[in-house]
Amino acid sequence: MDRTREHLIETYRKKAKHYDITSRLYPVPGYPQRTQRLRAVQALRLRPGDSVIDMACGTGLNFSLLEKVVGPGGRIVGVDLTDAMLSRAQDRIETNGWSNVSLVQADAAGFDFPAGANAVLSTYAMTQVPECAEVIAHGAKALSSGGRWVVLDLKVPGNTPGWLAQLGTATVRPFAAIDQWIMRRPWETIRAAMQEELTDLSWTELFFGTAFLAAGSRRP
Ligand SMILES: C[S@@+](CC[C@H](N)C(=O)[O-])C[C@H]1O[C@@H](n2cnc3c(N)ncnc32)[C@H](O)[C@@H]1O
Predict the structure, then answer these.
(1) Residue 108 DSSP class
(2) Which of 220, 179, 181, 187 is nearest to 205 (CA)?
(3) ∠84-6-114 over CA atoms, to 5°?
(4) Exposed, middle or buried, 34 (CB in 10 Å: 0-12/13-18/19+)?
(5) What are the residues whose beta carbons fall under 8 Å from the beta carbon of 180, sequence distance 6 or more?
(6) Which of 67, 22, 43, 26 is nearest to 122 (CA)?
(7) Beta partners for residue 154, in sequence order
(8) Which alpha helices (H) appear in the chain, and where do they start and end?
């Protein structure tokens, strides 16, 4: 495992215990994260009985929203790299008595997506994955016909001066090389990959361009 991955796991191990509380302040207090999550889940167009993969699921903050739409006959698979985040997700599953949610500890970059999933979702994580384009391609190939891929994540608003972007993202990504994240502009890579791999792509900028919601369907 490379140094960046080790560092990322270490960071999320430290965050895991209080993630559900601290994430309410993410990226800043009052940020409409819950509304954004709801929009992302709606964009999946799931129906009762469907299966969905929550890539880089963290502590499972999307699970209750997903459960509401797929119901007990559906299936949710949460995938994450960090053991400590997954154990919080496991606590959530047990507390809620969900028998249709399973967890996999894996790197998104090497994850073998199960074929035939109705949807793949990733929230506030994909811009941290350097291989995001490959992950999107692999997920797209595994989708059932008409299946949906939805990515919700943060971005730097267009026309933001470099220094301001740095200041803003320092609060959001204290663990990462902020400069690199800004310079890499991973949201553009994600947009291009989704355009390439999916059809019917929609791209919506949220909250003054500080987040994006990208959604597309598997090509027929
Ligand atoms: C900001 S948290 C978001 C968690 C969750 N999706 C949410 O919306 O609350 C980012 C998560 O991405 C995971 N992650 C980062 N890089 C990853 C990778 N390459 N493969 C799998 N998970 C990864 C981290 O372990 C962490 O749990």
Answers:
(1) G
(2) 187
(3) 65
(4) exposed
(5) none
(6) 43
(7) 211
(8) 3-16, 19-22, 33-43, 63-70, 83-96, 132-142, 162-172, 178-184, 186-197
Q: Whose CA is nearest to atom 4 of ligand 1?
A: 58
Higher pLDDT, 180 or 31: 31
Q: Report the C-alpha gap between 101 and 103 in whole angstroms.
A: 7
134: confidence class by pLDDT, cuts 50, 70, 90:
very high
87 band by pLDDT with thresholds 50, 70 and 90: very high
Q: Is 135 in the pocket of ligand 1 (CB under 6 A)?
A: no
Whether the CB-CB separation of 55 and 46 falls below 8 Å is answered with no
- Ligand 1 pocket, residue 82 CB under 6 Å: yes
Cα distances (Å, whole numbers) of residue 99 to 65, 75, 117, 212: 15, 9, 18, 32
Phi first, then psi: give them for residue 191, nearest 5 degrees.
-60, -45
Beta strands 117-123 and 75-80 are unpaired
Peptide bond into 27 cis (omega under 30): yes
Closest atom, ligand 1, to C-alpha of 9: 25
- Secondary structure element (H or E) that encloses residue 59, with its range: none
Minimal-distance CA residue to ligand 1 atom 25: 82
pTM for this model (two decimals): 0.94
